[in-house]
Amino acid sequence: MQALALNALSGWRWVSDGWALFRTQPLAFFSWAMFISLLLMVASITPPIGPILFVILMPAVTVVTLSAGRHAAQGHKMLLSMWFEPLKPSGVLKRLIGMGALYLVTCLLLGLLAFLPFSAEVTTALKSLTDANNLMPLLEAVRTPMLIFAVFYMLMAAIFWYAPVLVAWHHISVSRALFFSGIACWRNKWVFLVYGLSWLAVFLAIDSALSLLVWIGLSNSIAATVQVPINIVGGAVLYCSFYPSYASVFTATEAEQLPA
């Protein structure tokens, strides 16, 4: 399986292609993004089971998202009955859940590796928080391990980025999918840097625009109400951009079919 190495500016093209896909079926993709937001909300209020289940289901959600993007790129209208079709082939859902469990375990192990050397400092800071109600020592204590974990997480995310769809569409083993995903991301590391910075700029621009509205007199409650659907649209376009990322790296002919 050959992963192409793209020009760094392809990272921005993934964003623009995601917007083009979203415009083909905005209601369908908005609804999917809202569904994922609801899953996140439920997970956040049901710890620890909710977050664990959400992480385990992430590869399956990724496959559904990319499959919807491929359908839209090919000009097919997404019907309600089509969304979970990619998970129906024999063994696919089982392997994706196994990948999600592996993702969870790997994330926990990396967190342990990042925080264990600083456990004494974190324990002392927690004691200071309890005794003196002072949050600053805790923030300072976790700053370095958080940075280390962020580096670990980016490496892990690269290994898992394309793996779900490689398992579901190319019918390869989880281990091979993780290997090919890691290679593809390494070959396109500058593309992903541009891609990440582009999305950071997009969401900062949204936040700045809403802050400007508050500054010129719009009430905070109205601004917060407006922000919710705008953020969901942003999330929907982000999810739509996943398919152009896959298509341009692994299947150049499919990338050419993306809507203009």
**Strand elements, count:** 0
> Which regions contain 5 or more consecutive residues with pLDDT less than 50?
253-257
The coarse overall form would be globular
Note the gap between the termini.
Answer: 27 Å
What's the Cα radius of gyration?
20 Å
What is the H/E string? HHHHHHHHHHHH
Task: Give the class from helix and strand content and strand pairing.
Answer: mainly alpha
Task: Explain this structure.
The chain has 260 residues and is mostly helical. It has one domain. Helices cover 79% and strands 0% of the residues. Helix 5 packs across helix 6. The longest helix is centred in the C-terminal third of the chain and has 27 residues, at 189-215. Residues 253-257 have low confidence and may be disordered.
In brief:
With 260 residues, the chain is mainly α. The protein has 12 helices and no strands. 79% of the residues lie in helices and 0% in strands.
List keywords for this structure.
260 residues; mainly alpha; 0% strand
Give the topology, please.
Layout: H1 10-24, H2 26-44, H3 49-73, H4 92-115, H5 119-132, H6 136-161, H7 163-170, H8 174-187, H9 189-215, H10 220-240, H11 242-250, H12 252-255
Helix pairs in contact: 1-9, 1-10, 1-11, 2-3, 2-10, 3-4, 3-7, 3-11, 4-6, 5-6, 6-8, 7-8, 9-10
